[in-house]
Amino acid sequence: xxxxxxxxxxxxxxxxxxxxxxxxxxxxxxxxxxxxxxxxxxxxxxxxxxxxxxxxxxxxxxxxxxxxxxxxxxxxxxxxxxxxxxxxxxxxxxxxxxxxxxxxxxxxxxxxxxxxxxxxxxxxxxxxxxxxxxxxxxxxxxxxxxxxxxxxxxxxxxxxxxxxxxxxxxxxxxxxxxxxxxxxxxxxxxxxxxxxxxxxxxxxxxxxxxxxxxxxxxxxxxxxxxxxxxxxxxxxxxxxxxxxxxxxxxxxxxxxxxxxxxxxxxxxxxxxxxxxxxxxxxxxxxxxxxxxxxxxxxxxxxxxxxxxxxxxxxxxxxxxxxxxxxxxx
Length: 329
Fold this sequence. Notes:
Low-confidence stretches: 246-265
CATH superfamily of the largest domain: P-loop containing nucleotide triphosphate hydrolases
Mean pLDDT: 84
Largest sheet: 3 strands, parallel
Number of helices: 9
Distance between the termini: 46 Å
Shape: elongated
Number of domains: 2
Oligomer: single chain
Order of helices and strands: EHHEEEHEHEHEEHHHH
Strand content: 5-15%
């Protein structure tokens, strides 16, 4: 129902079997994630994206993603420019905070759906981190247009914890082996008496349980749907979804890595960052972080400074920036 511009997907499949068939569809924000550690990074990115969307909606005085998209569409139609005030640092003479007014990006925000095929593997790797990220997303992300679909074949209390269970009012259970498993998923017995073959219990957000039957979709039918989706275009991946914020990523082979010992204060970092962006035509925080071997926060501040000085444009909803300058100032 939604085009790739209107809905993006993050698929997490630690088993590497169920969701890999969807690799390459244009709706994906990142290739299908199979590494549990990258899955944790993707969930943390979703939390940051949710917070960023809330800040944008707050500036426009709207309450949800539908209101935001309607407001920016109205502004685009009228040719209106919506500005925001950002802090740029302190004045050296007066010590007062300096402010800068800049135009907001009027691109519509797409829905983001995060699909996790096997919770058990993720909980084994980093239970507390996963639980915290899922709790925040489940509690707050709906108004920002971010939704979670999670599945597990091991419905035990160490996988479906009380915190996770409390934040997922809509649940589905297929046939399970015991009453205990049924209670873990639904909070009541009944799933152990299902017949299998798509027979399921569906619990809506109101708490009412309904018995429904899911259709069988063969592999060939899935492949046909995937082939049809691929005709809509190629995926535009966002590197930031699975790139670590606090750890140094390994260097790529398509360019030189600058020696840390050769770098001085921030001015040197900034000049090196400008040279990188103009040479490689890549403007992203993670790219500068890898090339200069500096922390994420430092790289982010360099990118913000380049934006203020007109070297790169503001990031759009996909995190991409237009490179405005052709040579170093």
